[in-house]
């Protein structure tokens, strides 16, 4: 499958039974997503995208990095939250939403313990999905959800542990299911 073939339909939301998350796995470049896709990655609250896939996001989306960095240094950002950054009209190339899941306060040796990162992941993803619903309610063009294997790179949490958290998320009163595409390039950016 090529990275841009058969993109997952955008998540839908209704007022029925609780909504669950399903994950589909793909090999390819997360950045080759169709316009309006939401690209999701785990971040620290210090305003640094200095290594791993965060550095690749910084290179590919300098305006999103500026928004993230400004957000982090202008207020006390709490872990377990999410910053959803709309596509910048002045960016050259694809127009992607960037979702920053704040799963650890710091990075490197000062990163949070795996159990705390996992706790923060669940609440950050729930907040992301609420923000996606709100953006759609405002007639924003928001497409499918794409995620790298969050937390498993520089935060050092085994992907299988994060996967269990993601698949266990339930959104009350939303009905149906949400698919998040998990993209793996097969290299150091996970």
UniProtKB/TrEMBL annotation:
Any GO molecular function: phosphoprotein phosphatase activity
SUPFAM superfamilies with a match to the protein in the record: Macro domain-like (SSF52949)
EC number of this enzyme: 3.1.3.84
Domain Macro: 22-166
Coiled coil: none
Reactions catalysed: ADP-alpha-D-ribose 1''-phosphate + H2O = ADP-D-ribose + phosphate
BP term (GO), one: peptidyl-glutamate ADP-deribosylation
Keywords from the named record: Hydrolase, Protein phosphatase
Pfam family, one: Macro
Xref: CDD domains: Macro_Poa1p-like
UniProt key word Chaperone: no
Function statement: Highly specific phosphatase involved in the metabolism of ADP-ribose 1''-phosphate (Appr1p) which is produced as a consequence of tRNA splicing.
Family stated for the protein in its record: Belongs to the POA1 family.
PANTHER family: ADP-RIBOSE GLYCOHYDROLASE OARD1, PROTEIN C6ORF130
Name of the molecule in the record: ADP-ribose 1''-phosphate phosphatase
């Amino acid at each position: 499958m090529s990275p841009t073939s058969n993109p997952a339909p955008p998540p839908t939301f209704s007022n029925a039974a609780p909504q669950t998350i399903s994950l589909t796995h793909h090999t390819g470049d997360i950045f080759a997503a169709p316009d309006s896709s939401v690209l999701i990655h785990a971040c620290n609250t210090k305003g640094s995208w200095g290594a791993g896939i965060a550095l690749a996001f910084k290179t590919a989306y300098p305006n999103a990095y500026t928004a993230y960095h400004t957000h982090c240094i202008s207020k006390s950002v709490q872990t377990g939250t999410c910053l959803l950054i709309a596509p910048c009209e002045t960016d050259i190339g694809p127009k992607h939403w960037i979702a920053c899941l704040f799963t650890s306060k710091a990075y490197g040796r000062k990163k949070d313990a795996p159990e705390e990162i996992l706790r923060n992941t669940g609440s950050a993803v729930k907040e992301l999905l609420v923000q996606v619903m709100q953006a759609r309610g405002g007639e924003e063009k928001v497409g499918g959800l794409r995620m790298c294997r969050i937390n498993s790179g520089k935060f050092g949490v085994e992907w299988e542990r994060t996967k269990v958290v993601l698949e266990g998320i339930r959104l009350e009163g939303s009905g149906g299911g949400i698919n998040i595409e998990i993209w793996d390039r097969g290299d150091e950016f996970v």
